Amino acid sequence: MTTATELTLLGTEELEGRLAESRRELFNLRFPAGDRQLDNTARIGHVRREVARILTVLRDREIAEAEAPIFPPPQPSRRCG
Known about the structure:
This protein has about 80 residues and is an all-alpha fold. The chain is built from three helices and no strands. The chain has helices spanning about 5-10, 10-35, 40-65.
């Protein structure tokens, strides 16, 4: 299981890859669960939480990017003498 702190250290492309992989795993876990053939039913909850963590980190980055200043702040002038 990956923690949110570990996820923040990853790049956006890698996070999107993990998100796709986790969603695929969750999709594949639902069929055996519906037929009552899934041995570890807790795995569905773990994968759902991992998807939520990844989405949260991606959204935090999106918000931070939107709030970033468009132009850098002016630098103080350095006058000698």
